Amino acid sequence: MSQMQFGLDQPPVKTKNSPKVLSVSQINRLIKNQLEGEFSPVWLQGELSNFKAHTSGHFYFSLKDSNAQISAVMFRGQNSKLKFKPAVGMEVIVRGRITVYEPRGNYQMLVETMEPVGAGALQQAFEQLKTKLRSEGLFDKKHKKALPVLPKHIALVTAPTGAAVQDMLNVLGRRSQSVNITVVPCLVQGEAAPASIVSALVKANQIKDVDVIIVGRGGGSMEDLWGFNSELVARAIYACEKPVISAVGHEIDFTISDFVSDLRAPTPSAAAELVVENTENLVETLESYSHRLTRAFNVKIESLKQQVTGLEKRLVDPRRYLQDLTFRLDELMTRLENASLNKIKQAKLKVQALEGALKDPKSIIKQKKSELEMLQQKLTQSLKTKIEQLRLKLNTVTVAMDSMSPLKVVERGYSITTANNKVIKKSSQLKKGDEINIKLAKGEVLATVEKVIK
Length: 454
What we know:
The protein has helices spanning about 1-5, 25-40, 75-80, 120-135, 165-175, 195-205, 230-240, 255-260, 270-275, 280-315, 320-355, 360-405, 405-410; strands spanning about 40-55, 60-65, 70-75, 90-100, 105-115, 155-160, 180-185, 210-215, 245-250, 265, 415-420, 420-425, 435-440, 445-450. The chain is α/β, with parallel strands linked by helices.
């Protein structure tokens, strides 16, 4: 062995005193036999680490404390019996055997049982399932169905024998004689209980005229009641179309079915009392309502009678009413006639006043004709005066203009010379050869310029 540790290339020569050389498989088998023979089943406490649920169904994980850890495996046959779901970080106590996996030379613990530290396995499983279903909304109040007020048909999902079913039958029979009861039998304890309860719930829900379902059993330990903590049962209750009352154990007992059902009853007997109104109480209630209704009816009739009496007193004979209306009509007619006469009288007075103010048209025309003749005379005289004034003014202007006319100058021996229709005032306006026109007092002379003297 020491030569193998130092890596010698050649095996030692065997002699009589040479040590026995083992293969790896042999040494692993020796260690396996030694460990498995030395350690009887042991109990270990530690924290779950590196937990893995293999597709084969086996659990592979490590158990560790503050200083060390050990590998472990729990085969499907053992872990299927667990009531809770292991998780990393969970503190557990396990029982099992120490074994060696020869191909790798690894030793590990083969776990047979596992319990959580603190709360028991059942309580741990209960809390885990409760948390899971609550997160999915199975406990929400919005999914709760209301119970019928007066159910006619009730289904009991429970064991067909035992105190629970008898208690419910006694209470239901005592409180109501008309309700129909159907017992849908199932197992309420043991490993087969969940599947049996689910099957019974499905059957009860399929009964057409069933109004409400009570599922439950009498008291017992947590293990006895465990069938009602099954996820299958919880989902079957949630899937029921009919209202479901959970009545499991005693008042202090709580199961998953209590949270998912539409109503939780502390005991099976209490469930029967909740679902069916006591017949005697119902009769008393109806009688009380009848008395109250009769009393209210009588009070209403009396009130109506008083109203009718009051109306009768206020009612007047129609003939008297018509007579009053006739008198009223005559009075209005008289007032109308008087008003009309007054109106006509006032209109006549107004016409007379207008007639008095109105003059004879002939005298008006004669007066206006005289005024017109007077105005015509004034206009004629005014025009004559204006014309005379204008004539005098025109004569004055004519005399003035005549005195200023160039022809008057010409008559005194002067002449007017023009060229190209322009009056010639300076010799510089002409040049040799220009034709000029000389206007005399009598006649005109056309001439040609021979010489210009400036």
